[in-house]
Amino acid sequence: MAEKIAQETRSRMMAGIRGENTKPELIVRSRLHADGLRFRLHDRELPGKPDLVLRRWNALVFVHGCFWHGHGGCKYFRLPRTRPEFWRQKIEGNKARDLRTLDAVARIGWRVAIVWECAIRDDCQQSLSKLVSFVRSESPHVEIGSPEGAISVPDE
What does the UniProt function comment say about this protein (predicted)? Predict the structure, then answer.
């Protein structure tokens, strides 16, 4: 069982977690750039401030952390035992916001890729290859990284 961390220490740790330029995001950016795909970062003019905007390809990339975005069934997501109701509301709110964002960007004509942290951690090369293929395709949506580690492309 994990050692209990003091409340002040936990608060400081949680406050230090970044929302931009995370390790999974940097890995995705590096691969896309290496494949010749150019992008803008965190465009505040678009709903949800996407992590990557590939205007030439009319594509947006959101890199989701499995914990913060409540990736159900994922081995990297576990609701904390401390203040579980607070965390449940926080994560459910994040998930609701994600759905509103996806709806908003789809309505204005953007194609969307969601890359889950677990996909980068578990099968980085296959996941990034799938992302590059999506960007160069005409598919409207791809979600890379299911709880089983599979890569799904929903039909739309």
Answer: May nick specific sequences that contain T:G mispairs resulting from m5C-deamination.
The per-residue pLDDT for range 18-41, each reduced to its tens digit, is 667 799 999 999 999 999 999 999
For 83, the domain range is 18-152
Domain membership of residue 6 (yes or no) is no
Read off the tokens for 56: 């030439």
State the CATH number of the domain containing residue 127: 3.40.960.10
Domain membership of residue 12 (yes or no) is no
Tokens of 24: 């999974």
Nearest to 153 by CA among 138, 137, 142, 144: 142
* The model scores a pTM over 0.90: no
Using one digit for the tens of pLDDT, what is the confidence trace for 46-66?
A: 999 999 999 999 999 999 999
Q: Cα–Cα distance between 38 and 19 in angstroms, integer?
A: 21
Residue 48 lies in a domain: yes
Distances (CA, A) of 102 to 4, 18, 21, 26: 37, 22, 21, 22
145 close to 151: Cβ distance less than 8 angstroms: yes
Q: Is residue 25 in a domain?
A: yes
End-to-end CA distance of the chain: 44
Total domains present in the chain = 1
DSSP class of 104? H
